[in-house]
Amino acid sequence: PTAPSVMSVNGHFANMGEKPTKEQYEHGIQVINENQEFNPTVPQYLSFEKVSSAGFKYHLISVFGSQSTGKSTLLNYLFGTEFGVMSEDDRRQTTKGIWMSKNKKSHSTTDSKKMADNILVMDVEGTDGRERGEDQDFERKSALFALATSEVLIVNIWEHQVGLYQGANMGLLKVVFEVNLELFLKNSKSNPRSLLFFVIRDHLGTTPLANLRNTLVQDLTRIWSGLNKPPGLEKSKIGDYFDFAFAALPHKILQPERFMSEVAKLGTRFREGHRDPRRDPLRSDQEFEGGIFLPEYHRRIPADGFSIYAEQVWDQIVNNKDLDLPTQQELMAQFRCDEISREALVGFDETIIPFENKQAEGIRLGSPEVLGGLGAAMRTARMKTVKNFETEASRYHKGVYARKKAELESKIDGRLKVLFQGQLSAAHKSGVRDFSNAVSAAVKAGQKKGASYDFAEIVDQEKKTVLAKFEKEARGVLVEGAPWSNYKQEMSLYQKDLSEVSGRLRRDEMRRLATRVERWVRSRLGESVGLEFNTLGSGRGGSGAPETGERGSEKEIWDRIWGVFIKTVQEAERRFTDRAKSFDASSGEVDVGLWRLRRKSWGVLRAKIEEEMMEGNLLLKLRENFEDKFRYDEAGVPRIWRPTDDIEGIYTKARESTLTLIPLLSKFQSSHTSMPPPLDDWIGNAPPEATPADEEDLTPIGGVDEDEGKSLEEEMTVLSDAKRQDVTTRFKKTADGVYVEAKRSAIGGMTQ
Ligand code: GDP
Ligand code: MG
After folding, report:
1. Which of 2, 86, 125 to probe ligand 1 with, by most ligand atoms within 8 A of CB?
2. How far apart are CA 358 and CA 349, in angstroms?
3. In order of start, what are the domains of the chain with their CATH numbers?
4. What does the alpha-carbon distance between residue 408 and residue 385 come to, in Å, rounded to a whole number?
5. Is the interface score ipTM higher than 0.95?
6. Is the Cβ atom of 89 under 6 angstroms away from ligand 1?
7. For residue range 382-405, what is the model confidence (pLDDT) as tens digits?
8. From CA 71, how far away is CA 155, in angstroms rounded?
9. What distance in Å separates the CA atoms of residue 356 and residue 351, rounded to the nearest whole number?
10. How far is residue 231 CA from its own chain's centroid?
């Protein structure tokens, strides 16, 4: 086969973009083409050959030598490759640029002599200038490239060329040495040793290999001493940079069987081996322990970074830039670490994006959700992503690796942190909601069973439950190694919010308690105040007479009502305080509650008085009072009217007595001082803890709420002057009616 067709379009590389096929790589891959371009599909080839994942477990060999010295043929027999070779009848150059192929052979049935894994062979275009003219440019460039990448350089040479010091091969070796010194100057620390492996072709056998070796070594030493060495390296020896190995092969066409068996023997030397410390690299190559691949030859380029490294190196060479290998290694490390990082993130995304989407959706809909399985997913994703990165990237430049690892971690930790906080915030919201609902439900259940439930206990219990739940959910999303992995702050925020909610619930509970106590006050006052007004109907102990009965005199009705009111509210206050204290209400909250209770109780009393003093009720009471005084004698015996009785006198006295009730009833005041009761002092000022909300639903009270523009006198006015007048007139009419009836009955009784 001639030049490649699959990879080359008009002599230039075309990135095919398709999945590589076996046919495509039949002859390996052209790494550098005749236009000195680097093939961008080398990574595909390496992964097709399953070398990319080999880490450092691969080897790179380049073969050098004049045109048409059977290099490609040798490689094909030695490594089972299918590099293009010159056909017997058309003697034209075949190998163009640099080709690469992976070893397909093992050459041994015994494991101990099996060839090393993942041997990559580079077939470098022959360089005797016959078809390239006098241009030695490519020779130099390919030598630099091979030295920067390869552990072993096979130098392919005819036996009859050995000792021809002026020959093309020696020119090539001179270039190799010069280039190596050039590299060494810039990279004295990092440029490793290489093995120059001479394979002598068409070995007749008359001159033993040892002699050939000696001749070659002499020539090499001569070339070396003739080199213009840079300052500081004048005294350096060739053995400082190179090891040497030698092999001879018989004529392939004349001795095909021996050729094959010798090639097979040669193949077994491509194994990993160790240096015998006593070995002189210039004298003998028999003392490699094991194979010729010594660890010190390895360029330490991880397999998955090889193509990018090779491309960068080639770029520097082609553009005649200084080839600074440590810089190239660092650049490669950056490039590869970024790639590895991106690959590691693919798996991370697969696991994490669904959670991110779900969380974002919850927030968008305003109902953030606690996501099940999130913690485990986060932990696995982080662990796997970091581990995947470490496995591949740790082979690269330590500083770059550490930096890129930190970058990757901060990237994934940033995203995990958002998930973590979203989860905590969802747990927070649902916890607060659950808490509030649970307390309300427990209170409702308590109310159903009867009034005595322990509010403080309920709050305590439910708080414990939701705190434990939050803690569990928060602990569930901790990720070891992530810098944000603690929930102290979120926990204290949560506790603060729960306290706020329990405060609100307690205030609600206080309101419920206040309502219950007010209801109690209403019913007690309804009864006791009603009773006071009912005694008016009896008219006993008539006006002015000193009261001896237990009910007291009419004159003191307001004193008694005030007294009963104070006592009732005192009892209510005690009940309120006891209960409120039981659920940890603050003294301020209790003060506000009591203040509201006194005001509301006054409202209750005022309403009760108004109800009693409604015109119909009042007239009825006045009439009853009057009739009691008029129709019954001092001893409480009903009068039977006789014409001789002083009906008019009794009538007048009773009527006047009842009439005194009207001014008495029109003002709530002390019988002793004729002053309104000290309602303002008794209610007191609003406690400092009272909020506007606490005052919002209160009815203003004259004399207490000064800005109402209503005095205490006015607050205590039960009947206005007009009403008094009206009631007086109407009562008199009623009394008159009773009088007329009595008069009639007296006359009637006489006629009977
Ligand atoms: P390259 O240019 O160095 O890669 O050489 P090729 O492998 O293409 O071979 C060039 C020619 O040499 C071909 O015609 C081969 O048949 C022939 N050839 C290959 N191996 C040997 C050998 O061991 N001895 C001799 N005399 N000719 C060989
Ligand atoms: Mg060739």
Report:
1. 86
2. 14
3. 8-323 (3.40.50.300), 334-486 (no CATH), 506-751 (no CATH)
4. 9
5. yes
6. no
7. 999 999 999 999 999 999 999 999
8. 9
9. 10
10. 60
